[in-house]
Amino acid sequence: xxxxxxxxxxxxxxxxxxxxxxxxxxxxxxxxxxxxxxxxxxxxxxxxxxxxxxxxxxxxxxxxxxxxxxxxxxxxxxxxxxxxxxxxxxxxxxxxxxxxxxxxxxxxxxxxxxxxxxxxxxxxxxxxxxxxxxxxxxxxxxxxxxxxxxxxxxxxxxxxxxxxxxxxxxxxxxxxxxxxx
Length: 181
Ligand code: ADP
Known about the structure:
181 residues; alpha/beta; Rossmann fold; five-stranded parallel β-sheet; 5 strands; 60% helix; globular
């Protein structure tokens, strides 16, 4: 199974991914986690990505697409996987489809976590990661609305999107996702 966890920053994608990967035996691929690891290693990719992440901007499609392609090729080896934080633009969604199609695969389900802005802002401020300050959060929410949200329609048209209310407790959200799948 190939699953995309979709939603704004602070929607709980990482938290839900952790629960789902065990329940469904999927490999969890989080582009945010992979990038943060590259930044801490001070790799070439990390150094290029850092300034975008600190500003709450998207890292370029070119960098992200080659990074995820590499991970999918080297780490999934026939096992199902769960994408968290990718795709985040329409070009990333198209690139994902193309790379899967080349291996006779496709995205099976997209779970969209629905949470209102005021709750997102509250959660992100509490989380307190280095890019979780008020100004960056505002920018990330704008970027989400302008560049990422259009993907939802794309997956809706393909008939593979399920919307899940994301402001219930972790356990309830997790149960609702599981039932919907
Ligand atoms: P959040 O969901 O809270 O925004 P992530 O950990 O998913 O956090 O992402 C952190 C940052 O990493 C983003 O603000 C962005 O700069 C970068 N990033 C992650 N995934 C992508 C992606 N698919 N395309 C472009 N940039 C990305």
